[in-house]
Amino acid sequence: MATITDLRLPIDWTTLGWPTTPSLGPVTLATGDPRWAWDPAAPAFPIPVMEGTDGTSVAGFSVDHVVLLVPSLDAAIETIGRVGPQPRLRMRLPGDREAAFFRVGTVLEVIETPVRQPSLYGVALATSESLETLSLGWKARGIQVGDVKPAIQRGRRIMTIHGFDAGLAVMSQDGASLPG
Question: Hey, how many other C-beta atoms are within 10 angstroms of the C-beta on 177?
Fold first, then answer.
């Protein structure tokens, strides 16, 4: 089964107090223009593919999901299906946008929105730390952190990190998650 192994986004991970290339579970993060690496091969989207990188493990964190914006959800489902995965869930999000979720090592959340071509939007991380404690620590580092609030997934909470050129959120690990 195809899996996401690496993700590059315009986020300076050292701002969070992490190494330059943190490994959060099986996904290694890097800084720069959006790219991704898959094993064995990425779906045929116009998103640059990167070589896998060695990272430094960051305890207590994992990649919960990667967010991909697409102009057509049906076309994206077909493209991803060519490398194996089928959506585990398809639903309407708040704001009446349709999304599909794929298990590709981590979760790939694909959202239909008015973009010209598919693009990597950002990443949501999961942590075993208290979101409130993490929020206070990051605010002390000068990071713009939104309020902790209930996530779409029942029993989970989320906070959005602002000030980066890509979407970044951190979620609690407790509660419901995507099926199997």
Answer: 16
User: 131 near 159, Cβ under 8 Å?
Assistant: yes
- Residues 6 or more apart whose CB falls under 8 angstroms from that of 125 comprise 24, 61, 62, 63, 64, 168, 169, 170, 171
List of domains in the chain: 3-172 (3.10.180.10)
By the 8 A CB rule, do 124 and 130 touch?
no
* Dihedral angle sign, alpha carbons of residues 131, 135, 138, 140: negative
Contact 120, 66 (CB under 8 A): yes
For 130, the 3-state DSSP assignment is coil
C-alpha closest to that of 90 among 120, 67, 111: 111
Indicate the residue type of 70: V
Q: What is the pLDDT of residues 46-99, one digit of tens each?
A: 999 999 999 999 999 999 999 999 999 999 999 999 998 999 999 999 889 999
Cα-only R_g, the chain: 16
Q: How far apart are CA 96 and CA 111, in angstroms?
A: 11
- Going by C-alpha positions, the residue among 168, 158, 156 that lies closest to residue 18 is 168
What is the helix (H) or strand (E) element at residue 131, kind and residue range? Answer: helix 131-140
For residues 107 and 123, give the distance between their C-alpha atoms in angstroms, rounded to a whole number.
10
